[in-house]
Amino acid sequence: MTPREPTSPFLRACRRLPVDRTPIWLMRQAGRYMAEYREIRARHSMLEVITTPALAAEVTLQPIEAFDLDAAIIFADILPPLITMGLTLDFVKGEGPVIENAITSTRDIDLLATPPAEATILANTLEAIRLVVAELAPRNIPLIGFAGAPFTLASYAVEGGGSKSFARTKALMYGEPAAWRRLMDKLVAVQADYLLAQARAGASALQLFDSWAGLALGKEDYEQYVQPYNARLFQKLESAGVPVINFSTGTTAYLPSVAAAGGDIVGVDWRMPLDWAWEQIGHDRAIQGNLDPVALLAPWRELEFRANRILEQAGGRPGHIFNLGHGILPNTPVENVRRLVDFVHERSEQMARAAVTG
C-alpha cells in the first residue's frame, strides 16, 4: 500500500480499492429513529440544531457511537443555502419545509444573492464539520459533507415546499428558459462554494443529493434542463480533492445520463437491482446503495435476505458502498439498524475470504 492510499474502508471503496469488508453508512443515519436525537429535538427546533455547531456535531456523532458505521455524515439539511440567497425558510411540524417568499417572477430570480458560505449561516455547518472531524480523525472514520443538487433546490424555491406535480417549477423551466438558466447558474455557484468550503473544513467526501429531478422529469428534460448544471457543479468540485457521490432517486429510466453528469461514486435508489445499475453506470465507477429503507421495518429474516442479495449482486467487485436507496424512516427499529450494519460487515468478510481461498 502506498502512503497516499486511504486506509478507511469507506474511502478505499470510493476509489475502487480492495477492502477487507464492504463499508456501510446510511442516509439519515442521524435522526428521528434514535431516542438520543428525539431528546435534543424536544428542546430545539430543526433550524436551531442545524445552526448550532455543538448540537449539529453531537447529533452527527450519535449513530457513530451507537453502531459500527464506516462513515459519518454531517447533520444538516439541503435547504439552508436558500436562506443565504434571500429566501425565508421554516420547518413546519407535520408539513415539512416551507418557504414563505417563494420565487414567483423572473425578477425574484435576479434578486437572489450568491454570498460565500463562510459569510453566512452556513458557516455554522462548517464549524460543526471541524468539531466532528476533530473527534473522528483519530478513529480513522471519515466525515461526509453534502448539499442539494440545483434542480432539487430550485424546485423548493419555486414551489415554496414539497410538490407532487412540480407544476410551477416546470412552467418556469419551459416558459422562461433564460430565467431558468439564471436560477440554475446561481445555484451552481452557491452549491459549489458551499461544498468546497465543507471539504476545506475537513470533510473527507461530498455527496450531492438530487432528490426530485427523477420524480419530476423524463430523460429528455433531465438532459436539457438539469444535466448540464450538475455536470458543471461536479466539474467545479474536482478541485476539492475528495471523492464526490452523485445520488439521485427515481432516475432508473436514464441512469446513464445521471452518471454522465459526473461524480466518483454514483448512488442509486432501491428501484433497480444493484448489479444492473452498475452495468448502466460502468464498472469504472464506484456505486453506493441500495437497500429499500422499508426493509428495515421487516422481520430480520427478510432484511437479512435482502441485504445478502445486494452483496451478492455487488459480486465482491471493489467500489461498492452499502447504503439505503434513500433515508432511514423515522419508525425504524434501532436494533434492525445495528443488525444490518454488523451483518454487512460479517457477510462481506466471509465472501472476501471465500473468494481468496477459491
Give a quick summary of the entry.
The chain has 17 helices and nine strands. With 358 residues, it is of the alpha/beta class. The protein has one domain: TIM Barrel, CATH 3.20.20.
How would you describe this structure to a colleague?
By secondary structure, the protein is α/β, with parallel strands linked by helices. The protein has one domain: TIM Barrel. The chain has 17 helices and nine strands. It has helices spanning 9-14, 35-41, 46-51, 53-66, 80-84, 106-110, 122-136, 150-159, 167-175, 177-201, 213-216, 219-225, 227-237, 255-261, 274-281, 300-314, 334-357, and strands at 72-73, 89-92, 96-99, 143-148, 205-210, 244-248, 265-267, 286-291, 320-324. The strands form two sheets. It has a seven-stranded parallel sheet. The protein has a two-stranded antiparallel ribbon with strand order 2-3. Strand 8 (286-291), helix 16 (300-314) and strand 9 (320-324) form a beta-alpha-beta unit. The longest helix has 25 residues, at 177-201. The radius of gyration is 20 Å and the shape is globular. The two termini are 24 Å apart. The relative contact order is 0.13.
